């Protein structure tokens, strides 16, 4: 009777081990963090574990290449696409930064959770000052070290009806004296000597 019981218990344990095998393989690829550093030689395409760059990766792309805004305006918006390009689900903190005459910028949402291959958009609301403009950059930082930044340039245009002034005629370094009538705006002097 003891032999039969031992035999049954060992069969149950071996079946149990087979049933949990896929879970242990899954745990090796998408853990609660990147693969351990002490096993760095085992990572990559020929290693036992994929590299953390394969597991956790993200891209950020503006939905337009460049943006125009009217001088002194606010409430302008631009959208960015955040895509999980890794093999594992990840959560991302989203931040916005700005340069130049982009005076303010806020982003919504400030965080996303995405499965592999899944994407979502974030919206930046911004205001601008005077010309020429500046950059808006959106950075997504993953829970396990992945990060990526997408940028868009904002050109500031004058308000409608504003006069357009060309300062080129007043650039004294670029005057063409050959087109000048006598005494138009500069004196040209020449002198000859006796040979």
Q: Can you write the helix and strand succession as a string? A: HHEEEEEEEEE
CATH topology (fold) name of the largest domain: Immunoglobulin-like
What is the top-level CATH class of the largest domain? Mainly Beta
Q: Please identify which CATH superfamily of the largest domain we are dealing with.
A: Immunoglobulins
Number of E strands: 9
Strand count, sense and barrel status of the largest sheet are: 5 strands, mixed
SSE-based structural type? alpha+beta
Give the mean pLDDT.
Answer: 76
User: What's the end-to-end separation, in Å?
Assistant: 136 Å
Global geometry: elongated
H/I helix tally: 2
**Main sheet strand line-up:** 2-9-8-4-6
Describe the structure using short key phrases.
195 residues, alpha+beta, Immunoglobulin-like, 2 domains, five-stranded mixed beta sheet, four-stranded antiparallel beta sheet, 16% helix, elongated, disordered N terminus
Describe this structure in words.
It is built from two helices and nine strands, in the order ααβββββββββ. It is an alpha+beta fold and 195 residues long. The protein has two domains: 2-52, no CATH class; 56-157, Immunoglobulins (Immunoglobulin-like, Sandwich), CATH 2.60.40. The strands form two sheets. A five-stranded mixed beta sheet has the order 2-9-8-4-6, with no helix packed on it. A four-stranded antiparallel beta sheet has the order 1-3-7-5, with no helix packed on it. A hairpin with a 4-residue loop joins β8 and β9. The longest helix has 28 residues, at 2-29. It is elongated and about 95 Å long. Mean pLDDT is 76; it is low at 1-28 and 38-48.
